[in-house]
Amino acid sequence: MLSDDNTAFEALLEYLKRSRGFDFSGYKRSSFQRRVQKQMHLRGASSYEDYIDYLEVHPEEFVSLLSTVLINVTSFFRDAAAWSYLQEQALPPLLLAKSPNEPIRIWSVGCASGEEAHTLAMILTELLGATAFRQRVKLYATDIDEDALSHARHATYSQRDLEPLPEGYRERYFELSGDRYIFRADLRRVVIFGRHDLVQDAPISRLDLLVCRNTLMYFNAQTQARILSRLHFALSNTGVLFLGKAEMLLTHTNLFTPINLSHRIFAKVPKPNLGDRVLETP
Ligand SMILES: C[S@@+](CC[C@H](N)C(=O)[O-])C[C@H]1O[C@@H](n2cnc3c(N)ncnc32)[C@H](O)[C@@H]1O
Fold first, then answer.
1. What is the pLDDT of residues 167-225, one digit of tens each?
2. Whose CA is nearest to atom 11 of ligand 1?
3. Of 47, 69, 91, which residue constitutes the final position of a domain?
């Protein structure tokens, strides 16, 4: 890429940050640029400068650009074997270690249209029963994309979307409404959807389980490192981190230790607190 082109691309990033508050500087450059160029091509813009002009004149273009650059692909029980492991092996000891009425705090980061958060709601209901799920679980689900969040809040899905569900789950967890399926209302109320930018906003804290799947991989190594140290802070000392199948801990491997590496499930390694360090000092 020519250096002039780079300067023009930086100007576009700066424009998006200033005019819309979205900071895309930490996304992997080449794939992000490819997506922007696809959008430019659709609009007949032959340079980044032209595209900034287009965005100025057509404010609605921003929504379309967002849906191209933020990849909302998701599904229920995505990578089914990893979810089985979470449900059958990783979560039971975590739940057993808690006293019976203690809250259970969970965060689905980059939740897209809500399938992941609703998958969590189903497996926690299987493990705890619906009453304890409603009473004890706080399930936060966030994304940067308001459009995706609006789908998630409606919690209605097509028959096709429900295909990955294990046998019996559709009947237990969804009600038919017209030709769509809606997630059970009593459980739906537990899931709190909100807008949160993983790069710029402070994390939710004291979490038992943090699910950040197929989102980290869109960021460059430096930004992944910043995000991972925030996720580490967000977890309680006994908390568990669940990443996507294609995601590796590129940095900060000392902050997490694998529970099951192939399913990308990790335990937090607590940071020694000041008291410990004072004791260790000769
Ligand atoms: C491919 S989807 C992953 C959905 C789900 N976690 C899964 O694994 O199926 C990636 C999501 O990350 C969201 N995302 C991208 N940048 C983000 C940011 N800075 N903060 C929060 N979410 C972001 C996108 O809007 C998109 O919904």
1. 999 999 999 999 999 999 999 999 999 999 999 999 999 999 999 999 999 999 999 99
2. 110
3. 69
Same domain, 108 and 38: no
| Claim to verify: residue 135 and residue 246 sit in the same structural domain | yes
- Gap from CA of 107 to ligand 1 centroid (Å): 13
Which DSSP symbol is given to 23? Answer: -
Please state, for a pLDDT cut of 70, what percent of the chain lies above it: 95
Same-domain check for residues 121 and 177: yes
Answer whether residue 263 shows pLDDT above 70: yes
- CA-based nearest residue to 215, from 133, 166, 145: 145
Give me ligand 1 centre to Cα 198, in Å. Answer: 9
According to DSSP, residue 252 is labeled -
DSSP letters spanning 256-271: EEEEETTTTEEEE-PP
Which residue has the CA at smallest separation from atom 17 of ligand 1? 144
CA distances (Å), 45 to each of 4, 15, 53, 55, 277, in order? 16, 16, 9, 10, 58
CA of 6 to the centre of ligand 1 (A): 26
pTM score: 0.94
Question: Which CATH number is 150's domain given?
Answer: 3.40.50.150
Return the SS3 of 186.
helix
Residues with CB under 6 A from ligand 1: 70-74, 78, 110-112, 116, 143-145, 148, 197-199, 213-215, 218, 244
Distance 132 CA to ligand 1 centre (A): 29
Residues 50 and 127 in one domain: no
Does pLDDT of 282 surpass 50? no
Render pLDDT for 86-127 as a digit per residue (tens, 0 to 9).
999 999 999 999 999 999 999 999 999 999 999 999 999 999
Nearest-atom number in ligand 1 for the CA of 23 is 19
